[in-house]
Amino acid sequence: MKRVLLAGASGMIGELILKECLSSSKVETIVSLVRRKSNLSHPKLQETIIDDFSDYSNHQVLFQNVDAAFFCIGVYTGQVPKQEFRRITVDYAVSFAEALKSNSPNANFCLLSGAGADRTEKSKTAFAKFKGIAENKISNMDIKFYSFRPGYIYPVTPRKEPNFMYRISRAFYPIIKLLGKNASIKSTELANAMFKVGMNGGEKEILENRDILDIVYKKV
Fold it and tell me: CA-CA distance, 93 to 121, in Å (whole number)?
């Protein structure tokens, strides 16, 4: 039976990973790090309010005896100033990974990254550069690290799209899907693949869109 740690359960993918964990006989406990309590109640679920996701000095016990950890906190490009975008994308993820390494160094750590993450750290696009920086910093920690780089994520559950481009992408999803296995993925497929790797580990550190789909459909 696994003890799972999750940051970002209120987001599209984090919410689905939480559902996977709650319904799985492999999971005994899931500790969800949140800014505010949800209305969800379940015997397996332990919600803990975190005031600062870049500082876990007072929450080290939450990271102990963890078997699988998922970091799904993120923000859409343009929603916040550049420095805040970096703080959420890099600092939050790295602080989470550092606390995990200190307390549960053998845990499987799954990071929700994104297609185009640039590990050269030279991209002029903030999303690609900061995702690459976060991946590099975590990879250098020598933990069981898996970075998921989905393309366009199609929300299976209808939602209010965050911006115009996402509204367009949703409308044209049938066409985007025709562009190949690296172009898009359903939200449920991404969450399922992350859950599987969290539970069982994986062979690759970097998982592009096609690799994620292969995991879902058991081709690897």
Answer: 16
The residue length of the chain stands at 220
Band (161; pLDDT cuts 50, 70, 90): low
Q: Which two tokens stand for residue 102?
A: 């200190």
- Tokens standing for 193? 């693949």
Q: Distance between CA atoms of 185 and 194, rounded to whole angstroms?
A: 13
Instruction: Note every long-range contact of 136-144, with CB atoms under 8 Å and residues 24 or more positions apart, other chains counting.
Output: 137/90, 137/94, 137/97, 138/93, 138/94, 138/97, 138/109, 138/111, 139/205, 141/97, 141/98, 141/101, 143/97, 143/100, 143/101, 143/105, 143/107, 143/109, 144/106, 144/107, 144/108, 144/109, 144/201
- Pure H helices in 2-115: 12-23, 82-86, 92-103
Q: What is the pLDDT of residue 199?
A: 97
pTM of structure: 0.93
SS3 at position 26: coil
Nearest Cα neighbor of 22 from 38, 113, 181, 164 is: 38
What is the mean predicted confidence (pLDDT) over 59-84?
Answer: 93
